[in-house]
Amino acid sequence: MAQLILRECRRGIALLPANISCLTWIVPVEGVRLRLEVLTSRKMSKFTCVQPAPPIEVFALNKSCLEDTNPNKVNLGVGAYRTDEGKPWVLPVVRKMEAKLAADDTLNKEYLPVLGLEAAATAATTMLLGADSKPLVEGRAFGVQTLSGTGALRVAAEFLARHLKYSVFYYSRPSWENHGLVFYNGGFTDGRDYRYWDEKNRTIDWAGMKEDLQNAPENSVIILHACAHNPTGCDPTEEQWAAIADIVQERKLFPLFDSAYQGFASGDLEKDSYAVRYFVSRGFELLCCQSFAKNFGLYNERIGNLTFVVHDQKVVAPMKSQVTLIVRGMYSNPPSHGARIVAGVLNDPELFEEWKGCIKTMSGRILE
């Protein structure tokens, strides 16, 4: 039975259902009972508890820019490469690879495996670590295709929280704003920052960074930007990377690299992978999250890779099986188009050289 409440009206007091929000009062001649005509009825939604979330600044800014009619506007929000005319640039080598894929009648739209296209993951891991990397040669390193760099971070966070029981993570101040959200959603409970940027002197706050890392508790995950630090663009020197590695080793911290810009920082793939390769050469177990949004211009294809480097080849199979379960419950399997582009370019010597030329073009304009 509907809840009844008293409501006043000009002609008296009526007993009405509480959920009625709009009524028409029909008052006929004297002596005839008052009749109500219900026009609408509103029920309480279960979702009234949902509060509006703050806008994602970079996308809100991009939306404002798109809606702005000023012909002289410049979009400095979303981190995407532009031509001199301010237009998006699809790399010629990407166009070439897409045409090649379109002409291949053997390709189809079947699901990829849960861990993605192996040819893409292997090529990405090799590009990061180097073909002669000892862990690669010994079968102690492997990669899995992910939904760009963000997907790699999310899978990495859940894997570390679930299986190594890690709960504390450190990110630089400032850093890419999504790091915290991704790690909290991945199961971490304690996010802390370490000093990185000296605003006054426009350089790395080296003393502050070292102090914060030295005070980090054991088993903290330290998010390190492999190159082209976001948002400062200022990277540690080789000597500073050595000191960071010393602290990570001494404090028994876990290094997780975010490599979103390999090739973009210097135009050289080898140089931009220095930090990761150095830590590998020091014998660290680590994870590295790779994105091909920037260096391939594949922003909306969501193609990335999560590289694992471990001490013992025997743990690789169990680790892959557990990553498979995480991905299966998260997005089941990744898309194929971007993965086929990356695999095709990285595994074709001629296209690979052409792509490196594109990287030099983009990084050169940025440095200018």
Automatic annotation (TrEMBL):
GO BP annotation list: aspartate biosynthetic process
GO cellular component: cytosol
Domain of life according to the entry: Eukaryota
Catalytic activity: L-aspartate + 2-oxoglutarate = oxaloacetate + L-glutamate
InterPro entries: Aminotransferase_I/II_large, Asp_trans, NHTrfase_class1_PyrdxlP-BS, PyrdxlP-dep_Trfase, PyrdxlP-dep_Trfase_major, PyrdxlP-dep_Trfase_small
Domain Aminotransferase class I/classII large: 72-366
GO molecular function, one term: L-aspartate:2-oxoglutarate aminotransferase activity
Parts forming coiled coils: none
Cofactor field: pyridoxal 5'-phosphate
EC assignment: 2.6.1.1
Keywords: Aminotransferase, Pyridoxal phosphate, Transferase
Subunit structure: Homodimer.
Family: Belongs to the class-I pyridoxal-phosphate-dependent aminotransferase family.
Other information: In eukaryotes there are cytoplasmic, mitochondrial and chloroplastic isozymes.
Protein name (record): Aspartate aminotransferase
Naturally occurring in which organism (per UniProt): Homalodisca liturata
Top-level taxonomy: Eukaryota, Metazoa, Ecdysozoa, Arthropoda, Hexapoda
